[in-house]
Amino acid sequence: MNIKFMATIMTLTTLYSAAVAAQSPLFPRTETTDDKTQTWQKKETPEGRPEATQRIKDTVAKPALKNIVEAEQAFCYTIETTPEGFTGYTIDGMAITGFCGMLSEPEIDLFVREFLAKDENVSNVVAQCIIQPRVMLRFIRGVDFTDVLFSSPCHSFAVFYGGSVNAFNATPASATLNAVIEAYEKKKMNFVSPALLTQLLPIGVPQNDEQRALVRSKAQQAPVRNWQKNNTQSTAVTTAKPEKTEPKGWNRLKFN
Prior knowledge:
Elements: H1 3-21, E1 31-33, E2 36-38, H2 54-59, H3 62-69, E3 73-80, E4 90-91, E5 94-102, H4 105-116, E6 133-141, E7 144-151, E8 156-161, E9 164-169, H5 174-186, H6 209-221, H7 231-239
């Protein structure tokens, strides 16, 4: 066998053994429990979080619901209907107008309790109104996520997952829904692409001087976000009276 090849193999073996002994991040130490090797540990699901009603379970896909009820993190974005010619950032096809923070554990619990766990807060009646996007919540579990849209004054919430949408008439909970939307809209900050900031978390807000300098330099070359200049046009879109023609897009959603 080639002597140089053998020497290379021996060198790699030595490096591997040394890295394992030092618990190098390149060679994470594994732990064996009940004959099963594990190299990571998932964050435990918070105890005491309410369970969704049977109606929600029968309507929303199981993994989509799991992302919400067992969410490890959740983020809030203010949104609006995407105006024609819009070139800014979007989420689920809607224009992002700002970032409204990371939800705390009590806030996630509140959402699950008020909108998923209370049958009386969801109406069986089909609402005769046009959904008007206001706030989007993104619930994240691992790398999977589920989005939930809040609409007002057409009071509803819609669950987005895997290309499908389930909309619910939340008229009975309109006071709570409006309070949540108002609270989050007051927290709105300018949104910047997390990819632009090379962040792992989808926060969309510069976290340090280096990121702020990066945003300023990019903004001089081209707009980082483009929703402000379309704001007047967007308002016209959301306040226009419904046409009598066959509804398209969001208007075709049927409440469950």
